[in-house]
Amino acid sequence: MRNFISIHKTGFRLLRMIHSEDSIIIPLHLLELCFSVAQIYVSLFLTSALIDILLAGAYEQAAWLAMALLGTNLVFGVSIHLIRRRFKGLRTKIWLLFYVWLREKSFSMDYETMEKAEVSEKILFSERTSDMYGGLGMVLYHYCDILKAVLNVLLSSGLVLYLCLAGSGDLSGIPGILAGPVPSVILFAVVLGGMAYGSWKVFRRFAVKQTEIFQAHTGVENQLSYLMNHVFGDPKAGKMIRLYGMEEMILKNAHVFYRKSRDYFGRMCRVGREESDANKVVNSFFTMASYLLVTMKAVTGAITVGAFTRYAGALNQFGGACFTFITAHGELRKICTYMQEFLAFLDMDSLHAKGTIPVEKRSDGEYEIAFEHVSFQYPGSSGPVLRDVNCRIRIKGKMAVVGRNGAGKSTFIKLLCGLYEPTEGQITLNGVDIRKYDEEEYRRLFGVVFQDFTLFSLPVWENVAAGFPYQEDKLWEALEQADAGETVRKMEKGADTWLYKDLEDGVEVSGGEAQKLALARALYKDAPVVILDEPTAALDPKAEAEVYARFNQMVEGRTSIYISHRMSSCRFCEDIIVFDAGRIVERGSHGELIAAGGYYAGLWNAQAKYYREPGDSSRDFSL
Predict the structure, then answer these.
(1) Does residue 133 sit in helix, strand or coil?
(2) What is the mean pLDDT of the chain?
(3) Domain boundary pick from 346, 380, 411
(4) Contact 465, 524 (CB under 8 A)
(5) Pair 549, 482 in one domain
(6) Is 535 inside a domain boundary?
(7) What is the mean pLDDT of residues 70-99?
(8) Which of 49, 53, 208, 567 is most buried as measured by Cβ atoms within 10 A of its Cβ?
(9) What CATH number should be reported for the domain holding residue 476?
(10) 464 & 592 share domain
(11) What would the pLDDT profile of 235-257 be if each residue is shown by its tens digit?
């Protein structure tokens, strides 16, 4: 019973969500349902009356009744057809609502929450199961089937009860006695109770099996999903597969996963057939007992031949409705089971409360950000990535954040941009904890190019303008500053050219070209602070130094922060923060740090040979 309540609690909540999005969808389905049920029973009554009138020889009256039968079926048929035509667009809308709600929730959550593996798994699980078993539209569809079945059961039960109470014309013998009102009601009640008990036992028996198979099948679908999305559908993976001869290995794994999936689907179908067959057996016993009752009533003269067809039809509707109810409820149970994960995702709270204070608008662009005893540890990690970091950053000029790989530089920048919140301590902007600011306003202070930057399969101008209003002059200015203007002009449609081929027949850009477009996006944002977080890590040190030098010219007049594990980016910076093992170990200008002969100087001298021009034997490469 608890499982039954849980299923319908989920189902009713989803129905309320659908209704809140479009108030016409559910009423239209209910109207179609009422017309369908009404057509069944109006036809039953008119058909039975027509048979009796024909047997009585009243042919003229029969003709009018036949015309009424055809007319009512025409009216109901046309009405149902028009409503179902309206359904086509609405069902597509319902199907899309699921994905819209999923994305809206994803975008509303803070980055730190969305980065959790369990959150990503909830999203993937919800999408995959929706594609496999039907989404919101199927919830509404099965509830309509259930409601239609309930209406059918109530109406047909009323007719059968009326049949049972009909007096017998011939009470002699066992058939006559059993056809009497009281015995008939008792017999029908026993048959109905037996059917309900049998159906419940079938439901209980197969519900556990279906749940076990469904849960086990999810793991296999995860494996298949990985192969389809991250191996077969990824051109970069295709290069590695060909270079290292991995085709046979990948296909071997694919066949293993396919066999597992096929086995689970086979078990699922087999259990589904067994459940259906068991319900058919239960339904068959009820049908036979019901027809026996109707036959006794007809034989004893309690009902006419026409009434026999009406009651037989009603009993047939009763049995079919019970079977539909059980089947639809089983499908609804399956859908609501995975929809509970979807709703659990929608109910998730972000890890951090959102602030509301607007950021002060300063014409001079001068702000001060302070890290006060800040430590940060990723969930599930063995120790903190940053340890008791204290520093003040005046948003003006050029700054570098350097250190070895894994020293905590990127985490420092993500905390600075408000993507993470400190595990300990606080970060302030002009003396106010940044958590109290409106996060969108605070993030407008920063234009960032991360090492793992992303361009989307959209037109060039959308990739560059991103979420800000499109201004053509500003777009080309940013492209020119990023040294991407000539590249975009050579494209067939200029800034309207689509990137990549996921959605359109777009252009494939090289890594260097993509990097320039990502830089243009950061410049187009026109933020007071522009940050380069090791986007050139794949380049050799000399090429990286050239990129940073060019970028230094691009951001002239703005605050710029460079993050790198190489020292070549630091020579033109007035302020350098040096990280090691999650702590700030040194800070100063390039000349000051070299003169100090500490950790920074050691890194510089270790890497200096990569920055020398041929024939240059000097050891100090400061500008």
Answers:
(1) helix
(2) 79
(3) 346
(4) yes
(5) no
(6) yes
(7) 84
(8) 567
(9) 3.40.50.300
(10) no
(11) 667 666 776 677 787 778 777 77
pLDDT digits (tens, 9 = 90+) for 529-578: 888 887 655 555 665 666 666 666 766 667 888 887 767 667 777 889 99
C-alpha distances out from residue 548 to 199, 562, 564, 606, Å: 73, 8, 10, 20
Boundary residue ending a domain (505, 526, 547):
526
Domain assignment present for residue 63? The answer is yes
Q: Kindly list the strands in the beta sheet with 386-394, ordered across the sheet, starting from the edge strand earlier in the chain.
A: 386-394, 368-376, 424-429, 432-433
Say what the pTM is.
0.66
Hey, CA dihedral for 79, 80, 84, 87, is it positive or negative?
A: positive
How much is the pLDDT for 47? 85
Q: Quote the domain boundaries for residue 460.
A: 454-526
Burial profile 397-412: b = 16 or more Cβ within 10 angstroms, e = fewer: ebbbbbbeeebbbbbb
The side-by-side arrangement of strands in the sheet containing 575-580 is 446-450, 529-533, 559-564, 398-403, 575-580, 583-588
List pLDDT tens digits, range 30-62: 999 999 999 888 888 888 888 888 888 888 888
DSSP state at residue 567: G
Given phi > 0 = left and psi -120 to 50 = alpha, else beta, which region is 264? Answer: alpha
Q: How far apart are CA 455 and CA 515, in angstroms?
A: 9
Q: How many folded domains does the chain comprise?
A: 3
* One domain for residues 141 and 57: yes
First to last CA, the chain: 77
Q: Per-residue DSSP letters for 414-450? A: HHHTTSS--SEEEEEETTEEGGGB-HHHHHTTEEEEE
Same domain for 416 and 510, yes or no, is no
Res. 93: pLDDT tops 60:
yes
| Residue-wise pLDDT tens digits, 168-197 | 555 556 666 666 667 777 777 777 777 777
Element of type H or E holding 45: helix 25-56
Beta bridge partners of 370: 392, 428
Residue 97 structure tokens? 């609502």
